[in-house]
Amino acid sequence: MALWVTVPLAVPLLAAPAGVTRAGSGTMPESPPSAQRTETVAEPAVDSTWPFPTLGATPVTFPRAARRPAIVSRAQWRADETQRDAHAHYAGGVTAIFIHHTDTPNDYNCADVPLTLRNLYAGQTHDRHWGDLGYNFLVDRCGNIYEGRAGGVDRPVVGSHTQGFNQGTAGIAAIGTFGRGTAVPAPMERAIAVLAAWKLGLGGVDPRSKVRLTSTNDKSRYAKGTSAEFNAISGHRDGTETDCPGDALFARLPAIRDMAADLQGRSAGASSGIGVPVTLQSLHQGGN
């Protein structure tokens, strides 16, 4: 007698960007992306003839999507697009995030952050010749999230934020300086976790997992071509000889990883290799 089983597949929806909350560099990136080897991201074809999954499929995880947070666009903070390189560059995906600080004053009014961003933008394009802002995103002390490097916030844009490890990663910069003894504002910490949960979730990456990255030059902590293990959410200092993101913010990374994992709906003891007993591969192969 044939046994038929229905497998429900939940498809999470991403929230649309909301408005901006108004309240009142210690990095050493590598050469601009124009000198890097990149690849174009292609959308996968959809096969409408997938066979029904059979019992006994190998348990593997589906991507864990977290809600997209509100992100202040480049147009909203009035970036002059004539200052940057005309074309963005892309990796095959984002598997890790590096956390930075901007090494700027902490006593700012959040309503004035757009001016701070324009100043950083001018310095990193004109003075350092990075072609654009080095960071993919920036977060202020009030918890507002800003689009940094151009190219699409939901795409794997190659930045200039972590020497040797810009490929396949995203850089998030906390606006301020967070050396030892400096309090990291709770809204900023949560915003970093929310952003990381969403960005890593696009590729199904557990924020608490370990990933392997390969250095692209000899100016990082690792020789060119060397593969090394990193936390999926790491500090700039993990990849490059620097104090960034400051002792205080670096010490908060374990809590940020846990918060991001919770936002992805992962239980406290779950690992990235455990999930529902159906995979895209088993759907194609009928579980064989």
Cα-atom radius of gyration: 20 Å
What is the element string, with H for helices and E for strands? EHEEEHEEEHHHH
Q: Main β-sheet, in a few words? A: 5 strands, mixed
Structural classification: alpha/beta
What proportion strand? Answer: 5-15%
| Shape call | globular
Mean pLDDT: 79
- Intertermini distance: 20 Å
Helix content: 10-25%
In the sheet with the most strands, the strands line up as 3-2-4-1-7
Give a description of the structure.
With 288 residues, the protein is an alpha/beta fold. The chain has helices spanning 113-127, 186-201, 236-239, 247-251, 253-263, 280-285, and strands at residues 96-101, 137-139, 145-147, 169-174, 210-214, 227-231, 233-235. The strands form two sheets. Strands 3-2-4-1-7 form a five-stranded mixed beta sheet. A two-stranded antiparallel ribbon has the order 5-6. Strand 2 (137-139) and strand 3 (145-147) form a beta hairpin. The chain is globular. The model is unreliable at 1-62 and 270-288 (pLDDT under 50).
